[in-house]
Input
Amino acid sequence: MEQLTNKRVIVTGALGGIGIPVMKLLSESGAQLFAVDRRDETEAAQSLPNIVIDSGKYLKVELSRTSEISNLIDSIANEKPNCLVALAGIVVSGELTSQSEESIRDVINVNLVSQMELAKHLIQFWLKEKIPGNIVFVSSWVDHVPWPGITPYAASKAGLVALCRGIAREYARSGIRANVISPGIVDVGMAAKQWREEPDYRARASRAIPLGRLQSPEEVAQGIAFLLSDNANYMTGSNLLIDGGASLYPMDPEEN
Output
């Protein structure tokens, strides 16, 4: 693994099913970490004790509040963070017509608006300090392939790709880069539960994944680490698709 000893990385959604493996891998690779999540410090200490103590700090932040984003940047400004992994996100399942206005707005606000506000404040800091920053937005294979029952989520992730490419275009001359990683169906949270407990979901998902299995969160972490590494220095505005072939969906019904 490429060493990340010169990377000072803000990781949002750090206590999530993907966030913890990301934090572990980045820590093992030598990165200095600033773990950001909405949950309290006690839960953070239980989930990430060695990582938080040995290689960084935990910051409780509600990203939907602009004031808390500003406070976040101010609180670590002296340590000059130079990377962001924008991993925080939520999903609400159900056909579009069954979803409430509140849930639709929550998904768009958390997955897109808050990421835009965080990126804006961090880029302002980087421009002021003349820091060549690097942003990795975490999207999903559904940012360009429809998947039933998560249309607001897919829309928010498609917006995230546009946000990334806009940032890449606007700030490349300042040495600031932005890329997206689009994982497939990851073996965490709701997808993992449905895979194990709902035969219909497993059959549908199995047809959609040519490699025939769910993606491990560690595989997502490896892609993120690559985009943070110096091996990806010539990449900006790119979408790194690591999905087991899920974006090749739909397959013929008889295929397994």
Notes: The chain has a mean pLDDT of 91.
